[in-house]
Amino acid sequence: MSAFKDNLLAGKTAFIAGGTSGINLGIAKRYAELGAKVAVAGRNPEKASNAAAEIGSEALGLSCDVRDYAATRAALEEAAGKFGPLDIVVSGAAGNFVAPALAMSANGFRTVVDIDLNGTFNVFRGCRDLLRTPGAALIAITAGQAVKPAMLQAHVCAAKAGINQLIRVLAMEWGPSGVRVNGISPGPIAGTEGMARLSPTEASTRALAARIPLRRYGEISEVAESAVFLVSDSARYVTGTILDCDGGSQLGDARDPLGEQGLQPG
Ligand code: HXC
Ligand code: NAP
């Protein structure tokens, strides 16, 4: 169920970095359903053109590595060249693997920081003069690891924490031009590459879900609804914020502290 009208994003243009699979592809599809013209970008050109075909005939599938500023800028220029000034830019490309810090080489650590944090800078810096202003809305996809440390995730924790501060700085610097910059912090989302890496078994998935206040993983479509809200006119006075779409995960471990005795209902 969605609270948004079918033509909410008619006449808008959107560029989604990392929009060729998972959560970001879900966001891209939802924007297109609501009438936006959508470009998605990832490293793999075939994956990008398949994603564009899934989104719809007007969608553009582009190939760039967000670690490379010039390539990222070229993809943004291609999208703006085809669609016109950009109203919406989402930075969601990310990399992850599970390893203790001592099993990470300097290059392993740098790789994730480079994709997630430097990539977000490249996407946002690269799109700035291609935006329709005032009114453009930018979203970075961050994660709970930005705030809550997680073992085996030193690279992601550092990178996503940097993204959270980048969001706030750009919200301040670009607010006067009418550009809003926000983040979404998804919790564990079902059926994604991220969770396949972090929680690969049924047992680990059940154990993790049992700690979440809402007692389940989220759906890609639920993150997409948050992404619609943040670019909609309803959020016109919202900038520099990070919307947790995580079932309450960031609040902490919500297993019943009374154990067998049980919490009182409610
Ligand atoms: C230790 C590892 C490793 C592992 C890679 N490396 N995997 N080190 N343990 N499991 C090291 C390599 O040895 C190498 O270091 C360095 O990392 C770079 O590896 P490459 O394979 O050359 O990098 P690249 O081809 O650029 O691929 C980047 C990647 C890859 C991050 C390693 O996994 C990728 O492309 N991921 C994209 C998809 C993805 O991760 N999706 C999930 C996003 S979810 P050396 O020293 O050997 O050169 C997410 C979740 C957040 O972000 C939070 C969820 C709750
Ligand atoms: P995913 O399916 O692996 O999507 C990653 C996307 O980024 C793909 O389109 C990938 O395409 C692209 N990408 C990766 N490296 C890139 C690079 N260097 N340059 C350009 N594009 C690149 O991931 P997901 O699990 O849906 O996660 C999506 C976002 O949500 C990420 O920011 C992640 O940190 C965040 N998040 C996810 C969860 C979760 O539960 N999954 C929870 C919290 C936060 P190519 O491989 O073709 O490049």
Describe the protein in words.
- This protein is an alpha/beta fold and 266 residues long.
- It has a single domain, classed as NAD(P)-binding Rossmann-like Domain (Rossmann fold).
- It has helices at 22-33, 45-55, 69-83, 106-127, 154-174, 193-198, 202-209, 220-231, and strands at 13-17, 37-42, 60-63, 88-91, 137-141, 180-186, 242-245.
- Strands 3-2-1-4-5-6-7 form a seven-stranded parallel beta sheet, sandwiched between helices.
- The longest helix is centred in the middle third of the chain and has 22 residues, at 106-127.
- The structure holds hexanoyl-coenzyme A and NADP nicotinamide-adenine-dinucleotide phosphate.
- Hexanoyl-coenzyme A binds at residues 94-97, 99, 103-105, 107-108, 111-112, 143, 145, 156, 188, 193-194, 197-198.
CATH top level class name: Alpha Beta
- Looking at the structure, the CATH topology is Rossmann fold
Can you give the mean pLDDT? 97
Compute the number of structural domains: 1
CATH H-tier superfamily: NAD(P)-binding Rossmann-like Domain
CATH architecture: 3-Layer(aba) Sandwich
Strand portion = 5-15%
**Rg result:** 18 Å
* Intertermini distance: 25 Å
The helical percent reads 40-55%
Question: What structural class do the secondary elements suggest?
Answer: alpha/beta
Largest sheet descriptor: 7 strands, parallel
Q: N-to-C SSE series?
A: EHEHEHEHEHEHHHE
> What are the segments in which pLDDT stays under 50 over at least 5 consecutive residues?
none
Count, helices: 8
